Amino acid sequence: MSDLSFGTLLRLAGETVRDPRVTFARLRNLDLPQGALWEALVLVVVVSVLMAELGNMLLLATIPEGTDAPQFLSPFVFGALQFVILAVSVILIDRVGRAMGGEGRVEDALLAVVWLQFIMICLQVVQSAFLFILPGVAGLILIAGIGLFLYLLTAFVAELHGFASMGRVFGMILVVLVGVALGLSFILTLTGVTVPR
């Protein structure tokens, strides 16, 4: 599979939803260099920022005049924050998986994060379209997207580390997510940062 055109990527995205482990295994077989994968990570972050900015503009356009507009993070801050989160995700997928007996490489973890982010961007485009056509359906797509994210992440981690049990991997992901959330809460408490009410 040498054709990585946009049409091919969309087709692979659809195949990933239907059979994530098999499709991800095919992507791994491409053996993409780590440098190219980091460039792809930067690219998906840039696209995510552009999508977020477009969504913010559309939201501001719907706010009645005289109403206080919501405050958004600047594109640079949002992009930097997202890049850090994705990079940390790569490290966690690699280190935690190998600590549990997995056999994946950091390149595999990087590919998993990049590909998962690409699929989520595709889903975001669909959701944005439904905001204009059927707003109620857009909310359902958001809920389905959360489930799809966890399902694909579980399948990717299981495949790249050679785990047979999807349930075990899902449990590991939940434990890591809770641990990260608690860790961030602890750090924010130490630094005196409070959540606005």
From TrEMBL:
An annotated GO cellular component: membrane
Listed transmembrane segments: 36-60, 72-97, 109-126, 132-157, 169-195
Protein name listed in UniProt: Yip1 domain-containing protein
Subcellular location: Membrane
Organism: Palleronia abyssalis
Membrane topology classification: Multi-pass membrane protein
Alphabetized UniProt keyword annotations: Membrane, Transmembrane, Transmembrane helix
InterPro entries attached to this UniProt entry: Yip1_dom
Limits of the Yip1 domain: 16-184
Protein origin, superkingdom: Bacteria
